[in-house]
Design a protein that fits this description.
302 residues; four-stranded parallel sheet; 45% helix; globular; disordered N terminus; aryl sulfotransferase activity; cytoplasm; EC 2.8.2.-; Sulfotransferase
Length: 302
């Protein structure tokens, strides 16, 4: 009965929510409340031992966050269940009614692990000044954008994406929150040449999770036993994380999981279920044009 009551209340609260307002910072669309507090975000003071996890939305951010937290805690799942992921690793540009990611970060003891979706040019300059380690996770554009579409459908803190056809045109125009996928992944890729950035790929983690987890472990300066790595592989698998209340955002009031779960499919190639043949052709042409100036490449076929 109690569980049913919670679900009913959540649905009622969901119905009362409305989509937020949006503005821009240097041409990048962000929530208006983020733009209104931009000076506070831009002037955030990073510390030398901060670790930042950066990504385009729905590129495997939560997955990477949980992997990192388990590595930092030597595979201890109880320690990683101490709080929901967004409380363990503050989201820099998140502004809530009662708190902000910046406030959370400022109250945390060092060493801190933080999260952002900001494009590289909007990252607070103190991260560069303090030479902080950064992990950037990227996902192939077709799957990434399909996942982002469904996330916007269920998350009332983001703009209503409209139909898939409408959203597809919006994406090609770059008129999405946190900016163009192309600019985002290329900007961070270029920055890794001058800064300690571990640039990893969603598809690589899927294909060989233990190899990628070991890569993250070494970047963090840790040395865990093989059995601990195996434990982390298991506990960061999609099915386990989907059931984990510390990672599945099930109690996040702005997210309607009945419409689309936060952890939706966790597979490669789902874009084939969404793109029309004409859209695929159009996107391929757009991709070739916009990726011609970079050495960055993605695995798009499963």
């Amino acid at each position: 009965m109690a569980k049913d009551k919670v679900e009913e209340t959540s649905e009622l609260q969901w119905g009362l929510l409305c989509r937020g307002e949006f503005s821009q910072v240097n041409g990048i669309i962000l929530q208006k409340k983020v733009c209104d507090c931009w000076d506070k975000i831009w002037n955030f003071q990073a510390k030398p031992d901060d670790l930042l996890i950066a990504s385009y939305p729905k590129a495997g951010t939560t997955w990477t966050q949980e992997i990192v937290d388990l590595i930092q805690n030597d595979g201890d799942t109880e320690k990683s269940r101490r709080a929901p992921i967004h409380l363990r690793q503050p989201f820099l540009e998140q502004i809530k009614m009662t708190y902000s990611g910046i406030d959370q970060a400022n109250m945390m003891p060092s060493p801190r692990t933080l999260k952002t979706h900001l494009p590289v040019q909007l990252l607070p300059p103190s991260f560069w000044e303090e030479n902080c380690k950064i992990i950037y996770v990227a996902r192939n554009p077709k799957d990434n954008l399909v996942s982002y579409y469904h996330f916007q459908r269920m998350n009332k803190s983001l703009p209503d994406p409209g139909s898939w056809d409408e959203y597809f045109e919006t994406v090609l125009a770059g008129n999405v929150v946190w900016g163009s996928w192309f600019d985002h992944v290329k900007g961070w890729w270029k920055k890794k040449d001058s800064h300690p950035i571990l640039y990893i790929f969603y598809e690589d983690i899927m294909k060989d999770p233990k190899c990628e987890i070991r890569k993250i472990m070494e970047f963090l300066g840790k040395n865990l036993k093989e059995e601990v790595l195996d434990k982390i592989v298991y506990n960061t698998s999609f099915d386990i994380m989907k059931k984990n209340p510390m990672t599945n955002y099930l109690n996040e009031i702005t997210m309607n999981h009945n419409l689309s779960p936060f952890l939706r499919k966790g597979i490669m190639g789902d874009w084939k279920n969404q793109f029309t043949e004409a859209q695929n052709k159009q996107f391929n042409e757009y991709y070739e044009k916009n990726m011609a100036d970079t050495s960055l490449s993605f695995c798009i076929e499963p």
